[in-house]
Amino acid sequence: MGLAHNIVGIIGNVISFGLFLSPLPTFYQIHKKKAVEEFQPYPYLCTVMNCVIWMFYGLPIVKKDNILVLTINSVGLVIELLYLTVYVVYANDRKKRVRVGCILLCEAVLTIILVTVAMLWLHSHRVLFVGITADIFNIIMYAVPLAIWKKVYDTKSVEYMPFWLSLAGLSNGICWTIYGLLQFDIFILVSNGLGSVFGAVQLGLYAYYYFNGTKEQVKKPSQVQLSNQPSGAA
């Protein structure tokens, strides 16, 4: 069981790493244009906080035998901060740069508060407190594609919903759900199980509008916003 748990976790790390890298073409275009245009950084800022909380959950002082949760979220945090660095460098409005900085500062303060509370006052309920907090952020991240669903519904087109990215998002949720089941980690299981449901619905939506929607080309967004970033344990 331990071997299977590790194998699934490694596969989950690989899938999640691929999803973390999925916005690279977007940021390459930003680099080429030397401007962020209408690109919004908020999903990436949310992912930063999500990674930080799951890194904390993966530490042995909170939950033992969760090193694979710690590794992928550590890598994800570095990648997200690099994305935000590119955004700040090419933001053509000082207000945008200040806004990103202020949000990151607030996230740092919130992290310090959560860690302090968990370490000093919640010795016997530390796993519960951190796990619930991580699940809240994870569910928020899995709910991000809802905006894309609305766009698909409004346009009756799947131009805004890349198939392979949607499939990878579903695979990511399923993989981490299995990981949570193998050693019954309720917090990994709940949020990623829900993420798997979201992913299945998204693919179902894709299939419906691929066969029944409009075949006309619609204007694609100038940048691909975060719609399938790995979440939670992933």
TrEMBL record:
It is found in: Cell membrane; Endomembrane system. GO terms for cellular component: endomembrane system; plasma membrane. Mediates both low-affinity uptake and efflux of sugar across the membrane. The chain crosses the membrane at residues 6-30, 42-61, 67-90, 102-122, 128-149, 161-182, 188-211. Keywords: Membrane, Repeat, Sugar transport, Transmembrane, Transmembrane helix, Transport. InterPro entries: SWEET, SWEET_rpt. Belongs to the SWEET sugar transporter family. It is a multi-pass membrane protein. It comes from Hibiscus syriacus. One of its GO terms (biological process) is protein homooligomerization. Pfam families: MtN3_slv. This is Bidirectional sugar transporter SWEET. GO terms for molecular function: sugar transmembrane transporter activity. Signal peptide: none annotated.
